[in-house]
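Supplementary Methods. Inverse-folding protocol.

Structures were first reduced to a discrete structure-token string of length 290. This string, shown here, constituted the complete conditioning input.
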């Protein structure tokens, strides 16, 4: 059992910044979508950001130490969650910041695996413990986060039932699929699956499982694979699924998929803002931090 949560918030948010119809959005919301990190877009009452709700669920799941990975231009996070680099108190959570620096010669960050590697280099104590890693623009439930915190498996991820996702079917079809064995050990992750491949990836319950980038890692075991993560040939980034699969090549059966069947609100593009606001109004009428 551990209490460390690392939140990936240093990405470029390029899809959020793309032009769209902006239906139902105010001028302020459009400006925030174009300028802010996705987790800081004000989707809650009084303009509070999505990150509040993720931290709220993390606290109720039993996490204590939060590490937010921000970009070199991520100072706005400190206005919301504490001016110090380390150990800010936010409703009883200890918030620290790691910076994902962009390597020389690149315009954009180098991906999720690079973000995590830079974070554990800045906080080497994480390499001697277990920790959870998740996105800043997804609202994972407290139940899902709790399962990652308490699982006895050294490495794990939340294996979501694809049918429970409340997204358009075209969007869902682009999600990478996780292939699990009969006891939910992770065997493979396939991107952009064909229809033939989709049918072969159903689990023992006949469900298709997808990852939404919510992982638990054994810090010491995953570190060498983070350090030596290759660049994805198409996206030109270093990605966490690559790290996990490379570890499994040398250590099979070291990662488990924890089955979950629930929707995960997501802020990828401007058209998601209205849906997320409606979800929060319905499910989070008031935050009780106690």
């Amino acid at each position: 059992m551990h209490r460390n949560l690392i939140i990936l918030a240093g990405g470029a948010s390029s899809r959020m910044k793309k032009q769209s119809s902006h239906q139902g959005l105010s001028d302020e919301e459009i400006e925030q979508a174009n300028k802010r990190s996705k987790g800081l877009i004000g989707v809650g009452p009084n303009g509070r950001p999505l990150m509040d709700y993720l931290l709220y669920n993390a606290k109720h799941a039993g996490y204590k130490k939060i590490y937010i990975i921000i970009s070199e231009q991520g100072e706005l996070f400190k206005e919301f969650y504490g001016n110090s680099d380390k150990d800010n108190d936010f409703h009883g959570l200890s918030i620290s910041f790691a910076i994902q620096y962009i390597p020389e010669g690149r315009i954009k960050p180098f991906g999720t695996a690079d973000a995590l590697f830079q974070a554990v280099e800045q906080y080497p104590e994480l390499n001697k413990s277990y920790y959870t890693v998740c996105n800043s623009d997804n609202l994972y439930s407290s139940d899902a986060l709790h399962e990652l915190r308490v699982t006895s498996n050294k490495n794990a991820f939340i294996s979501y039932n694809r049918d429970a996702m409340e997204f358009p079917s075209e969007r869902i079809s682009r999600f990478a699929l996780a292939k699990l064995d009969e006891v939910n050990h992770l065997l493979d992750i396939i991107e952009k699956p064909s229809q033939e491949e989709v049918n072969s990836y159903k689990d023992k319950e006949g469900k298709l499982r997808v990852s939404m980038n919510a992982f638990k890692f054994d810090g010491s075991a995953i570190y060498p694979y983070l350090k030596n993560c290759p660049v994805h040939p198409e996206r030109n980034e270093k990605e966490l699924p690559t790290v996990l699969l490379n570890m499994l090549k040398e250590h099979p059966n070291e990662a488990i998929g924890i089955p979950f069947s629930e929707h995960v609100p997501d802020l990828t593009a401007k058209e998601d803002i209205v849906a997320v606001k409606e979800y929060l109004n319905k499910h989070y009428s008031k935050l009780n931090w106690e």
